[in-house]
């Protein structure tokens, strides 16, 4: 059973041998391969397709393209549910199940259409006034109901099961639009030898030519040029693909639709392509404008060009008794074609005297004509069944089942404006065309106001040649075939806006002419204000059909010209693009890359709770050490202080610095000197920024006369390397130094604690690690299992400690070897939480203190620089503001209240002072110290108040906590350094 | 997306690069003790409308620091060269 009441038996670009079954709101219907969902619905005489955004007005199919404001449907099930898809661009797929939107309980009977009754309250500025005025309280109550009533489709809440692809592509010439101008441009550029991408949103090439009869010259011209293009090896045809944005550097964002392969995914994007084109031809065509009259949104009213597309391309006769209301010549073509197809047609042309050739043709085809007439009134509740025409001489009621409208054409300038080029108004076509485009961008066809097909083809050819030449390809070309197509274009006649009734300007956002008048009365005259006040053009269709009518209306109200009124700003995307498609594979686990140390797998297999530190994954604590992080870190600290612990420090930045001037270079980049560092010794160093603030710290070891091994903090590794390269490249090219990252080449582990030397001796029997052979800050180079080995005696925790570096591929082996050799000594691994706590006890500054605001003096490190000069940041660190007495300096803090704790981030006040504002400082790092049996911390506190022994108040308003703390030396443990030197 | 024609690696997307700020300011000598000179170098910027010389580093490629001449109105890039001037 394949009953399609409005289908014509012959013609069109549908394949009658391939019937397609689909469902709309559960009802089984039939169409053909080559249909869109919209054309198949029309063939089945489904007039009512959705309800409108605010007023729940019944809506039908208005256009035949991506500009569709009304016929939005939902496709897909579960996580594939995709709302707000224009039925006019959906390729009909076998088994497709579409749902109408914003209706309850059913499309035909919608309870919320009473919103229409309350519509005076839902006018422009409704939300604004409700939020701001005395009605704010009422809003709290009504919000739920209004939010539920207003809107379009509902998205699915399940995760999307599909994976999307983002591709990167390159070409010489990108042609946007596969109509006559675009086809001609692609052909010319291809002949000239350019690699061409031809981008067409539709699943067929041809543009407006597809709306011509399939038995005429247009169709054969199209077939010829398409065959020609397919013959080129250097042309990539991209149908079903929309260029949604253009970005700097000739980068186009393209989104390709699935097509009809899978009905559940028919509305889903297939892939996004970022296409880098040397030059671009915009041949995006034009969009027909509606007319604004009362109830112009009624189902059964459509653009004249759409009616013609449905008739000639899809073999659907959308109406038997048709009224064509127009202000220009182009709509007459629809009238004539509909008349030839057997419809009874009346043309109501607003112009008093249409061209004689139109009148003659109308007479020949039996089309009745009313001149100077406009539609005054629409009859029919769910779909139009009659119109009242009014003119200077006539007033007539005409029964009809289809009204075709045309208010002229608007060039599709959107994409050409994305880079900020304002479109310019052209009076002769009463429309906006692209402004002066940057070099390498060209326009052709209707987008440039060249509406006549022959002219578009010619302009396309020229643009194609120019674009190819710009891209460096200029082979010989031949002009394309000419064909005879009678074009009927004219400047549209502008109508005034109706004063009463619901005359829609923006169908999708339910913005009427009276909303625009209201915005004008209330002072929102600028188009950008108008847009935001009325929500005009903010729908998923981005106001493709409404923009010009609104501008014209505002211009009339202001008594200004259109160019003076201006347009709103066009921004990407041209059509909605699913976020999933843009994300591609960068979702979930792959959202951002993360880095693993060589011992990562071991940590995971041995109970480490991992923590993301920048891009790195590091062990936070080991679950064997305690039930939670608080218990574990204290146990791990105790282990280090009493026996020994092993820590993965492979994440440290490691930079190899080589060259005859390496020592001079380090002297300039570090605040403390390195030139005198003996070979085989390490030194702690601090780098400043040019503005005198501390940049990073780390240790650098002299491996030989001309070679140093630098380590940086994990967080700043990339920044430090880049900065060193900057200084060598741009400032000191005379220094013979090369820097190279060796971060990934070395696995690194720190073994800390009283027993650390015993562990090393046991683990590496051939290597002498006595205090004499390897004193504090000493270096030992050796090999282990054929891999390079470096042992540096450095301490971060304050205990005797060694940093052991080995070739990355041997990292896990050495790690497990050290652990088993250390087992008799109580050696176990510890995580970054314990590491951070150990350094707080020792008073070492780290990220929370080196926060991009502190100087050497602030951190108590001023003596490191001493009297040195000539290093980065030296001059500006001495500026007077940094010497102020109340400048916040590093202090130690200990909790003096029994049973209470300090918190990082707490604000510090003087005792007895009002707890408000920013206080005199803050706590930066906190730990419970098992050695001292209390909470201790580091903080920054006003230097003039920071007297050791003074009590201060630490306030933590987020938790409403206030606790007393005492200012003490920041070094809580072993200030003489006996442990690390012993 | 800016496309930067790296003199070593060819035209690449800007996300392979790290921005390094104004290349027209002159860095004082490392031992220049004049606070005014350092103040001007660190803080004083012209913020021009139009052509602007700026540093970019090709961090995901050759790691060379480059001087890019970019129009701040259009992002059009007029020239790209190595920042390093080898000592003669």
SSE series of chain B: EEEHEEE
Return residue spans of chain B where pLDDT drops below 50 for at least 5 consecutive residues.
none
The amount of helix of chain A comes to 10-25%
The greatest interface here is: A-B, 31 and 35 residues
Q: For the terminal residues of chain A, how far apart are their CA atoms? A: 96 Å
| Rg estimate of chain B, integer Å | 14 Å
User: Helix share of residues of chain B?
Assistant: 10-25%
**Strand arrangement across the biggest beta sheet of chain B:** 3-4-5-6
Please state the oligomeric state of the protein chains shown: heterodimer
Mean pLDDT of chain A: 92
Strand content of chain A: 25-35%
Instruction: State the helix count of chain A.
Output: 25
Features:
heterodimer; A: 982 residues; alpha+beta; seven-stranded mixed sheet; six-stranded mixed sheet; 25 helices; 47 strands; 27% strand; B: 88 residues; mainly beta; four-stranded antiparallel sheet; two-stranded antiparallel ribbon; 1 helix; 10% helix
How would you portray this structure in words?
The complex is a heterodimer of chains A (982) and B (88). Chain A is of the alpha+beta class and 982 residues long. Chain A contains 25 helices and 47 strands. In chain A, helix 5 links the parallel strand 9 and strand 10. The radius of gyration of chain A is 38 Å and the shape is elongated. The model of chain A has no long low-confidence stretch (mean pLDDT 92). With 88 residues, chain B is mostly beta strands. Helices cover 10% and strands 38% of the residues of chain B. Chain B has one helix at residues 35-43, and strands at 3-6, 10-13, 18-22, 51-57, 65-71, 77-82.
